[in-house]
Amino acid sequence: MCSQDLLYQIGITLVKGIGNITAKQVIETLGDVSLLFKEKVSLLERIPGISRKIISEIYRPEVLQRAEKEVLFIEKNKISPLFIKDANYPERFKECVDSPVLLYFRGNADLNTEKIISIVGTRHASGYGKEITEKLVRDISKVYPETLIVSGLAYGIDICSHKASLKNNLKTVGVLAHGLDRIYPAEHRNTAVEMVGNGGLLTDFMSGTTPDRQNFVKRNRIVAGISDCTIVVESAEKGGALITANIADSYNRDVFAVPGKVNDAYSLGCNNLIKYKKAALITCAEDIFREMCWNKEKEKPVVQRKIFVDLTPDEQTLVDLLSKVESMQLNIIGIELNLPVSKLASLLFELEMKGIVRCIPGGLYRLI
Predict the structure, then answer these.
(1) Coil, strand or helix: which one is 207?
(2) Is residue 248 part of a domain?
(3) Residue 68 lies in a domain
(4) Do 175 and 215 belong to one domain?
(5) Cα–Cα distance between 57 and 17 in angstroms, integer?
(6) How far apart are CA 205 and CA 208, in angstroms?
(7) What is the pTM of this model?
(8) Which domain holds residue 328?
(9) Which of 251, 285, 297, 358 stands the most exposed, by the fewest C-beta atoms within 10 Å?
(10) Among candidates 155, 198, 154, which has minimal Cα distance to 173?
(11) HSE-up of 164 (CA within 13 Å, CB side)?
């Protein structure tokens, strides 16, 4: 990536008054984010959401000076900036209205891999909670070893899920509530270092950002938005895990909860999620596979192309692609076939009507 492009991509995140939603409007309007800093005031005033006050903030020299400092930090520490227009930006997260225009990633995980599961829970994990977490991760690894496990690197269930993933050779990503110049809590530094080699660390915060309380809610939206589903293992009646679950629900992602004793303070949150139908009850990994329609058949039937005599060339190309995988996410299909989402949606609809393709939870498509 050109350092100059990155400079302006960081710059737009530093302008006071421009949040994620407005930033996306600016990017769609201008096409090239650098124009925000180069165009005349008269043009900028025509952009929806850009006021004279915001324009005055754009021209503050401190904005690009701070962005330049961050570019140097990124280059020195081998960090991968993920701009919302980049192919490697998490496609699942692009679908979320409040997704940030820029993420910072250090690691080797594919953030667009076919199956991504977030596992969250209380910082005060019990022996029961840790045992369940370890078993879930172990059983997931046996059936779907390519699965990416995401959590927040916090005490309790979070760090347990990361360690279990590493132990079972699953890639795991920790989403941080601060910049990549530090690790919080410090006790998890060794695990975090190991994760960089088998997963990674992800944040939308620049270097120098401390783990302040309000940052954790922002962190939780990434945990929820980047995955196909969120699993809550243990949670009190209130807490960060429930916030993550509610955000995942607002993104139309599947939410699962592990039940606990009715009089256990750190099972109350999970039990309530189940009671009020905010989450599906699970007790094992097989429950997840079934609810997500991920169950592998012992012998996958061979799709007979010759019976699809009425397929158009585009439909045949799409069927050929899906025949190579168990399922694939909508945006990834678009990237593979280089098709706009509007045309792809029409093709998939026609194939569904012909009984050839099926849409399953998580925004995935598979051959019937």
Answers:
(1) coil
(2) yes
(3) yes
(4) yes
(5) 8
(6) 9
(7) 0.80
(8) 305-367
(9) 297
(10) 198
(11) 26
